[in-house]
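Incident log, support desk, overnight shift.

02:14 A customer reports that sequence design results differ from what the structure should imply. Their input is reproduced verbatim below. On-call engineer (initials T.W.) acknowledged and began investigating.
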């Protein structure tokens, strides 16, 4: 049953990705702030790493450059590279490549958060509106709803939701090691900028 839901999510996302829906990050952010719901397209930043790994569509460097322009900073490391784009609102868009062209991970944020930032979140009471106030770049994926939020010390807050009255309500929040190794992959000078 879960595989069926994932397939439906991917098909719906492909429909939106093909140009039949809005793909503009700013439109999705506005939707999130107005409705308290931000649901992902396949090209969205901030899709949980586990979900991104299971998507068969591979984003390439040419698509990223067309959508976001040239990077402000490019870093080349031993087994990967990454780009940083300074966005108009003061946030940074990080794009990691597993090789020179294929996107491994894409994430937008202003600062790495701390566990205490989520202290006021109450399962069964708090909604996606409350989460977006903490992390305005929140993306909720999947039929059952999940979002991921980068924390200091290479951790993530993984939030699971239930849909009630057409709103995402927080069902559970867990703190885990970041499987994408986001902050561990950044050079010290880049990590310092968001810490």
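02:41 Re-run completed on a clean worker. Output:
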């Amino acid at each position: 049953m879960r595989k069926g839901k994932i397939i439906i999510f991917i098909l719906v996302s492909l429909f939106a990705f093909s140009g039949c829906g809005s793909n503009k990050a700013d439109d999705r952010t506005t939707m999130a702030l107005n409705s308290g719901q931000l649901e992902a397209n396949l090209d969205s930043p901030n899709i949980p790493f586990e979900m991104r790994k299971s998507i068969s569509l591979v984003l390439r460097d040419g698509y990223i450059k067309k959508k976001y322009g040239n990077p402000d900073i490019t870093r080349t490391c031993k087994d990967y590279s990454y780009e940083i784009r300074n966005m108009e609102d003061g946030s940074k868009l990080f794009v990691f490549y597993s090789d020179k062209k294929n996107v491994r991970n894409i994430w937008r944020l202003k600062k790495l958060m701390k566990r205490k930032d989520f202290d006021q979140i109450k399962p069964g009471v708090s909604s996606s509106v409350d989460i977006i106030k903490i992390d305005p770049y929140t993306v909720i994926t999947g039929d059952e709803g999940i979002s991921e939020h980068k924390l200091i010390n290479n951790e993530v807050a993984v939030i699971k939701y239930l849909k009630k009255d057409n709103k995402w309500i927080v069902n559970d929040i867990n703190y885990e090691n970041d499987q994408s190794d986001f902050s561990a992959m950044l050079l010290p000078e880049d990590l310092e900028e968001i810490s």
